[in-house]
Amino acid sequence: MNERERLLNLFNKKKIDLIPWYGDLSWWYNSLINKDESYKGEYGYLKMHIDTRVGIYLYPPSLWKIEYSEDIKFIEEKNGDLIISKIITPFGELESKIKILENSFTTAYITHYIKKTTDLKVMQYIFKNRKIYPNYEEFERIDRKWDGYGIPVALGPVCVSPLQTLITRWAGIQKVIDIYIDNREILEETIEIIQDSDNEIFEIIENSPAIIVEFPENLSGEITGKNLIEKYELPYWKKRINQLHKKGKFVGIHNDGTLKGSLPLLVEAEFDFVEAVTPAPFGDLSIEEIFEIVDEKIIIWGGIPGAIFSPLYTEEYFEKYLKSLIQFVKEKKNFVLGVADQVPPDASFERVCKVREILEKYGR
């Protein structure tokens, strides 16, 4: 049984011979290609998964392409360790600054696009003036290329919930809360416009060849919070999940932060799986508490905190944690072994490979 067959059998409630193992190696990949050029490019990305024997699932080509009206201009420039992005429209300009953190192979927002309430009008204009087109051929090409080594998981808009989009990409949590308190009407107006604009995207997704769809929310229960999730995200997730379920899609969500304030609501939303689940002591719920909440209603995808791939943790600790986790979940019918959230750039090649070795010994 190959890795694709294991995952699809688990989703379809059929027998499997081994716990499926699908890890997000994308962050680690950024450091790996500096050490070994054979991993560069499209085939190199697949080769990394083949050599480490980790199921591949993330970052196939998007199912759609976006074109904007001619009066919207996107400008991006690099200035030292800053990426400065500007969006110019007839209603005004937006600018964000992202700092490149070379030592950690990542980036961080210095300033978001939305700095004042009136900036939301510019954002509204951008979402109202775009066209969406299917990109099925590229997705299907990668699906064939990955074959039995895994399965491409189609990602929805980043993020699917407009409120989460504002929090993670456009405004940041503090500015969203400020606007929520001071001018809730324009916030809700913006949310509605984004939802309407995304209708085209979800029509493309529901009619696509993708089997599994994930909402890349970057959700953390203590940041968005139970009240905001219940008010602005839960009803919308239910709508989109129902739309995709009618077309036979399996639908999940990326919750890579805390779980106490979000996991019960994800079960209520009727997601099929939650990906990047981080148990204690790195998260706020133990693996036992996580399964008490979900029972068999939802598939848990994750379990291995990304931090323990780092040399800061001993080999003994890594192996002990992994064996204990596998012993607990191997009788579960709703578990996919994954990384919560990503393998860090300082991880050793040998430790990434070690997961498969331990899994085959203890996870059958």
| Alpha plus pi helix count | 15
- Broad structural category: alpha/beta
| Cα gyration radius (Å) | 21 Å
Low-confidence stretches: none
The residue-averaged pLDDT reads 97
Helicity range: 40-55%
CATH class category label: Alpha Beta
Output the strand order for the largest sheet: 7-8-9-10-11-12
| CATH 2nd-level architecture | Alpha-Beta Barrel
Number of domain modules? 1
The percent range for strand residues is 15-25%
Describe, in plain words, how this protein is organized in 3D:
The protein has 364 residues and is α/β, with parallel strands linked by helices. The chain has a single domain, classed as TIM Barrel (Alpha-Beta Barrel), CATH 3.20.20. Helices cover 44% and strands 19% of the residues. It has 15 helices and twelve strands. Strands 7-8-9-10-11-12 form a six-stranded parallel sheet. Strands 2-3-4-5 form a four-stranded antiparallel sheet. Strands 1-6 form a two-stranded antiparallel sheet. Helix 12 links the parallel strand 9 and strand 10. Helix 4 runs parallel beside helix 8, helix 7 packs across helix 8 and helix 11 runs parallel beside helix 12. It is globular and about 60 Å long. The two termini are 12 Å apart. The model has no long low-confidence stretch (mean pLDDT 97).
